[in-house]
Each structure stands twice: as structure tokens, then as C-alpha cells.
Amino acid sequence: MPTTAPYGSWKSPITSESIVAEAVGFGGVALDGGDIYWLESRPSEGGRRVIVRRAPNGDTEDMTPRPFNVRTRVHEYGEGDFAVSDGVIYFTNFEDQRLYRQPVGGEPQPVTAEPSLAGGLRYADFVVDTARNRLVCVHEDHTAGGHEPVNTLAAVSLADGAITTLVSGSDFYAAPRLSPDGSQLAWLSWDHPNMPWDGTELWVAPVSGDGHLGVPALVAGGPAESILQPEWAPDGRLYFASDRTNWWNLYRRNGDGQVEPVTAPLDREFGKPHWVFGMGTYGFVSAHRIICGINNRGSWSICSLDTGTGQLEDLDLPQAELGRTDLKVDSGQAVFAAGSPSQPVSIQRLDLADNSVASLRRASATRVDAGYLSTPRAIEFPTENGLTAHAFYYPPRNQDYAAPEGEKPPLLVKSHGGPTAATSVSLSLSIQYWTSRGIGVLDVNYGGSTGYGREYRDRLKGQWGIVDVDDCINGARHLVERGDVDGSRLAIDGGSAGGYTTLAALAFRDVFQAGASHYGVSDLAALAQDTHKFESRYLDSLIGPYPERQDLYEARSPIYHTGGLSCPLILFQGLEDRIVPPSQAELMFEAVRAKGLPCAYIPFEGEQHGFRRAGNIRRALDGELYFYSRVFGFELADDVEPVDIENLQL
After folding, report:
1. What is the pTM of this model?
2. Percent helix, strand and coil across the chain, each to the nearest 5
């Protein structure tokens, strides 16, 4: 018989300690002969990233010895950190950003010289050019002395570490890919102020015997067409994803140079926004068959695609929600990170002989009885201008408890980062942490999110701080009007861009009664003037050009409008964050404190953009829960470390 207790006061087996215990995040995947490699980020090791190898006999071992930390800082967000070929691993080490080579069974040895400035030369997105004994990669030079680092495509000699520039002149490069015979190189490029989901160009150039490139040819793309993931088929045809019909569908260049669609037009996405390197969503079994991930309005499936007929077959896999890592395929298997609403993301191996699936490594070792898990419900709701927005609603669920009759639960609205990203319905214990305590969660894919076509993504152009806020508010109102949640206990949180949406919702609207910003933006002008190259012109499309439209930046910056704040706020911030500097949170905290509102600020030493250390992840979760318990007046069933809340008067 369930115990009756108020929402928020339910005791849950999903604790912050259990969430980080033996938890890992996944980065890239690589296949080399019969070996499978993947990258793990480990909170228990301070966020250190380790390459793991699984041998054909099933034995698994860590390849990266301490103190090495496999993580590139190209574009700051990185990924594309390693490659493997013929039993040799090539990777970037975080501390010095040098390239290293490590044979299986051996120790890492530096390939590139130590730069005069640590991290001054950076490398990412590798392809091994075996015939020429080199790596081809994206190269970012912070030593050139200009206003911005210089990005190029470069070749790094594996004999002496010499760096040769192959392609230059554009602001950004990604996805260098050699044809199967090594005679052609394909790549993506784009220029300010575009982001890669706005407009990119796909180029191909012949590669001479000595490694120099011939005259490049433009295959597809432009300022208003986003190209993703160029890949060479075994027969030498070049495939890629393009949003030229509103959705990222697959195309290919034939031998005569003509581009054609691989399938009939589909209102689905074959790709993800290029926030990080190496985010592949398809690969070749053969010239005639592709294994691919397809996003249908926020939910993923894994399919088999016949390249001749264009026919798709849903493989109906139990875990198909692709994580942020890439999908790799060879003739006998597909390996990828994916989860489901009832299972956390794990490294999955699909045997193509019989479509059987094996889970090789779970992101979380914690196993929770289904009676404590809330299942996400996809909802559509009306928003401004007669449009529809999307979200996933997680109602409270705990098999041991029931709420008093007539009580409705508090609601936590989550605004994802990016903002051109999307939420996932893979099992997130960080969401279940809330629902198992009796707090509903609304995970919003506001206008601007991916997975719903380019038109939906473009809703945010010039409207950041408006459309995202509208959609979060209208999603909450929709649940209140349906009678699902308590309209007097609405909270909102988010990290990075989601933190900005949180702060904007609190400063410009009077709907939420509390909020939590995790490394969120409070001053848009400061962000425009002090951020890294990759995003330095992003706000041109989201807000307007700076300083020409300084008026818009000030009008939409929460720091200038704290007078509109009327509810409690807690802020969490990494003190080494280069993307959103700590001053953003500190200024916001001082302004809210001076206004006399309940507020708290929790800084984390050694953290950058996002929290990677187990203790800090725990502190952020528990601290936010404690804050809401004091604001909304419910007793906690757990013994949680208190937070010092300024101006709290209950």
C-alpha cells in the first residue's frame, strides 16, 4: 500500500550519489578489424576521458593510461578526439593539446612538437592516410597572433610531426574524409556569421601521390543550405546529408558529378546539428546497404537503407535513441551509443547477420525498478503566432508513494542548451531524480530545436529570448490548463543557452515561481564580446549584429532587467568556463541579492562549461532540490547538504 505524502517529499532510490556512481559519458566510436573502441568520460576520475578497447573475444580494457585525458579543444566543444588504424591509436591530450600515437599494448608517444603556448595548436576530426603516413585533420592555431585563431585542414606527418596546410581561407572546417582509394579528399567549410546548421559547403579535391591537393570542386551547399557528414561509399560515391528540402535527408554525388537524393523526400532528419566533431548517424555495410539513425520529431530509430531502391526498413531495436556520439559500421556490425525511455544510453553492437543486439557498456551501472521510472509522453501544444511547439512530459512516479487527494505536483520545466540542439528521451536518471520525488518535468524542444525540420529550427532566428521563452511558458501553461500540475509551483532550469532561457523567462515574464541557471548567459553583449571563435558570430543570427544592434542585446539581457525578477533564483557556475565566463553568473547573483529576492550562488573550482566531476554533479542536483524545497515549502525525505540562500524569509 503506497504511503501518502506531499509531492516533493517522496523518498527515492535515485540519489545524486547513485547517479554518478560508476557513471560515464560516451564520446566517439571507432572500429579497427575486430576491435571496437569508444571514449568514456568519467566523473569519478574528475571528468578524465579514456579510450576503451573491446577485443573480439569480449575482453575490455582501458587503453589510455593516467594522466592522459583524451579531449580536444578545437571549437572548445571538441569531440573527434581520436582515431584508430591497424592497431594504433591517435589522440589529442587535453593538458597540452598535442597529438599522441599509442600502439595497442604500448605507451603513448607524442607526434607533434610541444608548442610554446600550451594548447596553442589544436587538432580534431582525424582521418588516417596510411599510404602517405600521415593524419589529415582540422587544425586550430592559437599562436598566430590575430584576433581569432586560424582554422585549416592540415596533414600531420607521422614520421616527424611536421604540419602541412592542405586547405585554408575559410573560417571553419570539419569532416575531412578520404575516398576508399585515397585519391580524393572531401570536407566541409563555412564562414562567419553562419553556424554549420545555417549554411556549409561540401568540397572535393584530388589528392596527388605526394599528398598535395588539386583544384577543389564544390559539390553542394551554400549560405542557406546545411550539409552534414560526408562519407564515401565502398564504390567511391560520395554521400552526405542536406536540408535543402527542409529536412536533413541523404544525397549522393554520382560518377558524373551530379547530385541525387538517395530516398524519396522524407519529413525526417538523417543528422544532428554539428555542435561537435564526429557526430555520425549513418555508415556503410556495403555499397548497397546503409545502417542509419533517423529522427522523427524528436525520437530516433535505427534503420537499414537500400541505396539502390531507397527503401528503408526500421530495425525495431529496443534501444535506438542515439546519443551524441557517432555510429560506425563495417561489413558485419554497427556500433553506436543509444538508449530508450527505460534504459540509459549504452554502447550497442548490432550484429548484421541476425540483427541481434548486445549492450557492451552502460552509461550508468545503477539499475532502478520500473516502478520508480516515469515514461516520457510526447506532447504538442499551441504557442505564439498560431504555431505548435513540442516537448516531453514526465509525470511524477514512485511506486511507494501517492499524493494527498486533490494535490497537484510542482513542475520543473527544462530548457535544453544549444539552443540549436534537442532533448532526448533516453533514460535520464537526472530527470527521474525529480519525478521519483513527486516533481513533474517538462523537457521542452522549443522553436529552434532540431529534429523537426529547418523551418522549425529557423524559428529562433532573430528571436532568441522570445520564441524559446514563449514555448517554455506555453508548455507549462498547457499542463496547468490540463490539470496535470500546480500552477503556483512552477520552476524552470537550464544550462548554457538553456540557462539564458531560464533567466530570460524569470526577468521578462511572471509565470515561474523559481528558477535555476547552470552556467547560463545573463549579458548577451558580454557574450558577443568575450567568447570563443566558433560561437563569436552566432548571436548575429539569434539576436542581430553587434554592436550595430546593441539595443537588442541590452533589451534581451536579463542582467539589465532584474527589476522584472520577482521570484527566487539559484545559479551554478564553473570558474574556468571560457564559453560563458563566471562574471555572467556573479553579476546576476549580485543584482538579485541587491533586490532582496531569495538567491544562491554555487561556484565550482576547476569546472569549465558543464560539470564533469562527480562531487560537483551531485552538489548541483542536490542543491537545486534543496533550494526548491525551501521555496515551495515541502519537506525532503533525503538528508541533503543545505545551500546558503540569501534573503530567504519563510
Report:
1. 0.93
2. 20, 35, 45
